Amino acid sequence: MPRHLDMDLLRALVATADAASFSLAASRLGRTQSAVSLQIKRLEELVGHPLLVRSQGRLDGPTAEGLLLLDYARRILRLNDEAVGCFSEPELAGSLRVGLAEEIMERDLGVVVDDFHQAYPRVRLALECDLSARLAARVQSGELDVALIKRVGSQPTAEGRPLWREPMVWVTGERGGAADERPLPLALFQESCIFRVVAQAALGQAGIPWRQAFSGHSHTGLRQAVAAGLAVSPLPLSLIGPGLVRVREGLPALPDVEWVVLYAPNGEWPAATRLVEMFEARLWQGRGAQPAAVAAPRREALPA
Questions:
Q1: Is residue 251 part of a domain?
Q2: Do residues 128 and 271 both lie within one domain?
């Protein structure tokens, strides 16, 4: 194992894993497909392990060793780019309009915002929380500079870079038997929430009758209702908190949740990129989620 890893090789690995394609990675890196393939092969030789799963001419995601190295590669490249930016970029200043899905607001938001203010004191943040579909529309219209949204399934309905992916699961209260009731009592968000749509569709396909036991707009209220044993609800795995447990049997499987960043059509502003990097570093590591490129091939997506 070498004592030093080439930055260009690490960048090729990250680009290929994110794109799940040598050709797309080559386009993003400004290289030929064969050159990127050779870079990955060289990196695999250096570390002594295959890093990407290849199947019938396509990529099926990183190997276990590839996933481990990807984590290091992202951090190494992030620190490198930050260091270079400190000396090559003008001081960032101005107003940054940011849209966040409510689930993002639930996760260490204060820590990320504080870190950002410390690093870029002249950038004024304006945060907006809404449904992902509405945030996506506001980014496309230029009303927001950047948005972190969720979508269920995979085929993108809007341009965006996948950040990480995690399972959507059924949850219930620790002491409740709501999951065994029929009709199944559900705690759901408003009509336009994609979690609601997906859950109802899955139960319908499984032939499981259900009734609405709680409806609201707040994650806090929904979780309290579920923790009290009133109902069952679909949630991203990383949002299972105190008083909630995962229902492992008796209910149909749900599709993964993918978290995506969207930038305004006028291009990425460096301040937006820095904020997204801080969220990405904070959120997917150690939360039961995985980089989006690791998940299975994508078929269908619905923004929430």
A1: no
A2: yes
In a domain, 30, yes or no: yes
Q: Of the candidates 183, 182, 202, which has an alpha carbon nearest to the alpha carbon of residue 253?
A: 202
**CATH number of the CATH domain containing 35:** 1.10.10.10
Q: For residue 93, give every residue at least 6 positions away whose Cβ sits within 8 Å of its Cβ, in sequence order, or none.
A: 122, 123
Residue 256 has pLDDT above 70, yes or no: yes
Burial of 209 (0-12, 13-18, 19+ CB in 10 A): exposed
Distance of CA 273 to the CA centre of its chain: 15
H/E segment holding residue 12: helix 7-19
pLDDT digits (tens, 9 = 90+) for 184-231: 999 998 777 888 889 999 999 999 999 999 998 878 888 899 999 999
Nearest to 69 by CA among 124, 146, 17, 3: 17
What are the pLDDT digits (tens) for 86-114?
676 666 778 899 999 888 777 667 778 88
**Which residues are bridge partners to 150 per DSSP?**
259
Q: Indicate whether 11 and 82 sit together in one domain.
A: yes
* pTM beyond 0.70, yes or no: no
- Are residues 210 and 180 part of one domain? yes
